[in-house]
Amino acid sequence: MRKIKKAERTLGFAAAMVTVLLWASAFPASRYALAFYSPGSVMLLRFFVASVTMVIIAAAKGIKPPKLRDVPKFAAGGLVGIFSYMFFFNTGSVYVESGVSSFIIASLPVFAIILSRLLLGERVSLIGWIGVAVSFGGLAVITLTQVAEFELNKGIPLLVMAAISGSIHNIIQRKLLKIHTALETTTYSIIAATIFMLIFLPGFIRELPGSTMSVNLVTAYLGVFPAALAYLSWGYALSKAEKTTHVTVFLYLVPFIAIIIAYFWLRETLSIWSFVGGIVIIAGMVLTNLARTKRGGSG
Predict the structure, then answer these.
(1) In the chain, where are the structural domains located?
(2) Residue 152 · residue 143 · CB < 8 Å
(3) Which residue stretches of 62-200 are H helix?
(4) Quick count: other Cβ atoms within 10 Å of Cβ 202?
(5) What is the pTM of this model?
(6) What is the per-residue pLDDT for 199?
């Protein structure tokens, strides 16, 4: 294996931080767009822009069209991973503040561990299961903070479904990445998801006249940066790291940066107990990553 130079590692860390900033900004940016558009319309506009961006990048890189036998795999990745994830995420984000939603989505790797155990038979150490339990404890705390007059905020289960969809997407991506490059997998999955999102086109056409230039620019930003370029910068960061955990640790910062951006942009605040619940979720994730590192996995 080629030894990673110090300058390359530094560039990798910088790329990881850029990715984290872009992904964190997606939470308040989505909330802003959802004040003007329905969840389906935000999905369609965002991923139409993302698809165009990825096609331009793919053409510049000279990647080949997918083989016919691989089309169903990319379609499944786009439908289950991106389409369903974005539908649940956008719909849930209508009802839940950016900080809360970012902490719930941060639990995505927990569901990925459970599904990998159930579907792929992967072993999970005792520390890993303790981490899962701790993260679920944090989710429970956040859930309780979103109960008003004995009624649960309807956005919470939707965001949990988004996290589960994202974890399924991770499993599908892992299979695709064994035979395709990261650029091919990302490009074709995004295009497939966008095709499914065309069912929202009539609604988008109806809502477009009532939108503003600022909301269209923000939604386009979501497509170009958090949905397209961030995945490329993340792939670069991973390629320059000696161990995966050297860059994945940056992901713990996403909810905290999202909270800061949402406060200054949308004036959203987070209750102390929601923040505590989020901290517990992150603590659980630290434990699960520690378990992976100790058993000599990917990180």
Answers:
(1) 6-294
(2) yes
(3) 71-76, 84-93, 98-105, 108-120, 126-145, 155-176, 182-196
(4) 11
(5) 0.86
(6) 97
